[in-house]
Protein 1
Amino acid sequence: MRGGLAALLLVATPVFAAPLPELKLLSEHPVDDMIGGNLSGLASCNGVLWTVSDRDDTLLYSLDTSATVWKARAQVLDIPPIPDSGLSPTLRAMAKASALVRGGDLDFEGVSCDAAGNRYLVSEAYATVLKVPVNGAPSWLELPKKVVQEAQSAGMLQHFNAIFEGIAVSPAGDRLWLAAEREKRGLLTAHLGKDGWACDASCILRVESGTDVLPPQLGGKSVAKDFSDISLYKGKLFTLERAAYRICRRTLETGQLETCWSFAKEALQPNRLYDQKYGLTEALIVDDKGAWVGTDNNFGVRADGEKRPIVWRFAAPEGGWSAKP
């Protein structure tokens, strides 16, 4: 392996010596009218919130946020033929077989948008990105196959249902970042040039392995470190780290960890617990005033009886997201 890439293959992230600062919950919003439930991504596009479900292949939802209970409004997508991203035939076949049972052949796991309002949906099943323009038909981005090739060579994208879990797109729509979920997890990037989408010397920003310990309310067992979404804000990447119930700020250039904030105290209140022994948060938007965090409850019922997807609004930390640790 080349030295430059080998340097990216990091076994562990820093251990926090003290408890992380806890984010303050401002509001909680059940989401009605998502046909397949399973909210798995969030994006804010010129003041409108959008979401996707990993069970709905042909629907993109805008959210009516005018009341405490939000309403999802479906936009039907005309999905073009799926390109070959280089993902192994075995993983593609496993995704197709799973879709026969649960639905969601494309398994959309994240959504982002550019300043023009174009939306970008990442398909976990096929490791590729669908662009949904403001006007016109959707199209798959012609990403270089080395995105998947390099990721797999580095130990990412090895397991079914552990492929790309999050996406962030630059305001100009000329650069994107993808989050590989787990075992190993990592951050990758590509940019749009005069000859189409390409990577720099490497598509990989960072690769990480290791484990996190679930909170006691979820059994306290060790699980693989994960990324369940990413958000681009003021020149930083923010990662949603589901198993650890935290949001972390990372550098845009290398994905180096800078600092983290926990939302475990609020998320793990007794009335908010699910009978599912792992984290369920899968959607993240970071903005000036705070963060939106969405939950994919897998049709599970919460302790208080709530069975709809949930979006939480957390206040920004004291000093803002750019404050030094």
Note: Confidence is low (pLDDT under 50) at residues 1-9.
Protein 2
Amino acid sequence: MWIVELAFTDAPERFAARSAHRERITALHAEGKVRISGPLADDSGAVLVFDVPDRPALDRLLAADPYYTTPGVEIVKIREWAPFLT
């Protein structure tokens, strides 16, 4: 699994792109590729947990969603995660 941490600004482009992004994340959740996702309580960023086999698979999913390169959205960290409880 992979944890993707995002940082946000108040750029209007981020708000305009959010709905389409949430639709994509919802579809990926239905496919089992996203386990959980959501904004931080203060809306300064978000955390997403992807369940894909390797970094190239994750990179393809991120590249397919323009939200991650939208002004106001920055991927600040990507970490591989090995949970023992799910």
Note: The chain has one domain: 2-80.
Protein 3
Amino acid sequence: MPLSPILTGASGMVGRAVLLECLDNPNVERIVMINRHPVDVHHPKLTEIIHADFSDIEPLREQLRGYDACFYCAGVSAVGKSEEEYTRLTYALVVSFARTLCELNPGLVFTYVSGMGTDVNGRQMWARVKGRTEVKLLNVGFRDAYMFRLGMLLPERDLPMKTAWVAAMYRILKPLAPLLRRFSWATTDKKLGRAMIIVALHPQEEKILESTDINRLVTLA
């Protein structure tokens, strides 16, 4: 069955990984990416929508009808942010976006990139906020929804890295990639993209997926 997903976060490492896998996958018929700023990726089955305010996607309603999946890969770091600000960007904005999509496409499968250690009762602020976001998204009313608790993402392609310290860390770790792939908390960019496509096409019992679940899904597919 051909898949038509909506994608956010294509300017970042995770979103770009999912985008490139979608473009390569024959099961993906068309994809629309919503970005705050243009992304220099072009493909016959790709449409780009530039929209600055993700808290209000009402102006995009008609452009977002007729899609059957959303790969929500946009996100912000909690570093330097108050809990109030992080909640607005990570909970309120995402939930508002999801509710509008659900109204437009009730049969849609929604996937959200969370993080390893997410816990609604956790000690860390970011973990609690993302935990609340996960709970809400699982109950918005979509046909199906999955929370991807990503650990370490090991790039197999050239991916954008927005911050200098992240780019430096990956340069240091690159020679260790074959070893790191053996750990349960690590997965690759290609496996992440494939796993999202798999859950959008084939319902899974588990709705919260850790890196080990991502790797297992791809192996079994």
Note: Residues 83-104 form the longest helix (22 residues).
